[in-house]
Amino acid sequence: MSHSTIALCRTPPYGSAIAREGLEAVLTSAAMEQEIDLLFLGDGIFQLLDHQSPEEIGQKSLRRNLLALPMFGIEQVLVCHKSLRDRTITLDQVQIPGVEVKTIREPGTLIAAYHCVLSF
Amino acid sequence: MTLHIVNQSPFSSNALQDCLENFAQGDVLLLIEDGVYALQGEFFRAIPGARIYCLEVDTAARAQEATASAKPNVEVINDIRWVQLCTQHNPIVSWFR
Amino acid sequence: MRNLDVEGRKIPLDKEGYLRELCDWSPSVAVQLAQAEGIELTEAHWEVIKLLQEFYHRFELSPAMRPLVHYIRQHLGADKGRSIYLMQLFPPSPAKIASKIAGLPKPTNCL
Predict the structure, then answer these.
(1) B46-B51-B57-B63 Cα dihedral, nearest 10 degrees
(2) pLDDT tens per residue, range A74-83
(3) Quick one: which of A97, B28, B39, C109 is 20 to 30 A from B84 by CA?
(4) How far off is chain C from A33, nearest CA to CA, in Å?
(5) Which domain holds residue C93?
(6) How far does C8 lie from chain A, in Å, by closest CA?
(7) Domain assignment present for C106
(8) Is residue A1 over pLDDT 50?
(9) What's the predicted TM-score (pTM) here?
(10) Contacts of residue A119 in chain B, CB cutoff 8 Å?
C-alpha cells in the first residue's frame, strides 16, 4: 500500500477560515518535502477562480496563494469534473500558471487509492 | 476500500451529497452524530448495494432506530465495531462539513 | 513594545523583532534590522531581499525555505538558488531572517 496523501479542498475561500487553513497545511507539508496531492471539489472549486479581489472584505486573496504552488513543488492539481460542471465553470477559468489542472471524472476511485485523506 | 464517515444532516449540509459523489465500488458509509438523519430520506439510492452503518448511541439519541431497521443495507453498530471498521478500511475520509 | 530608532523615527517591532507595520520598511530600516542580526548588507543580500518582497506581493505570503530557494533559483540561477548560499547570507535561518530584514511577516509555513 502506498503512503500517499491527498487533501480534499471542499470549502469556498472567504466564508470561513477553513479553505485558507487547509491550504496552509498543504503548503507546510510541501515546504517540509512531504508529497501531497490536491483535489478541488464541491464549493472548493471556487478557490481556483481567477479575478478574486477580496481586499474590500478585509481578506487576502486565496487565489494568489494558489499561484505559489509551483514554488512549493506542486505542479499538478486535480479538479472534480462534475463539481465544475454543476457550477458552470470552465477549465480555462481555473488555470494556474506552471500547474497542470487535471479533471477527474471518478473521484471515488481516485481517493480510494490514497493512504491518507485530509478534508478541508 | 474507503470508509466514509459523515456527521452532518443531509437536510442542512452538503457533506453527505459530496460523500456520495465520491463513493467508489466497495466503499462503505458510516453515519454518526447528525449524519444519522440521512436515514429519514432516500439518499442511498445513489449507492445501491453499499454497506451503510450508523452509530448506535447517535441513532438512538435522535429517534432513528426504527428508520435504521427499516432500511435493508443499514446496520446499527457500537463503538467496538466502529474501531473494527477503521482497521479494516483504508483510507478513511471524514465528511464533517 | 520594542522600537527601532531609524533617522529619528521610532519604528515598532514585535517580540521577535519583525516590523509591526509593513509600511514602516525602508532600506535604512533594513540596514538596522540586519545589524541587529549581525549581518552587514551587501549587493548579494539586497538582490535576495528584493526578490523576497516581490514574492510576498505576488503570492501574498512569506516564503519558507523551499519556496524561497525555488524562487531565487528561478530569478538568479542555480548557483544562488541553493539553501547553502542563502544560509551563508542570512544565518542561521534564512527564510526567517531574510523575511525580517525585508520587512515581511514571519513565514507561515516555517515550523
Answers:
(1) 40
(2) 999 999 999 9
(3) B39
(4) 8
(5) 43-101
(6) 32
(7) no
(8) no
(9) 0.89
(10) 93-97
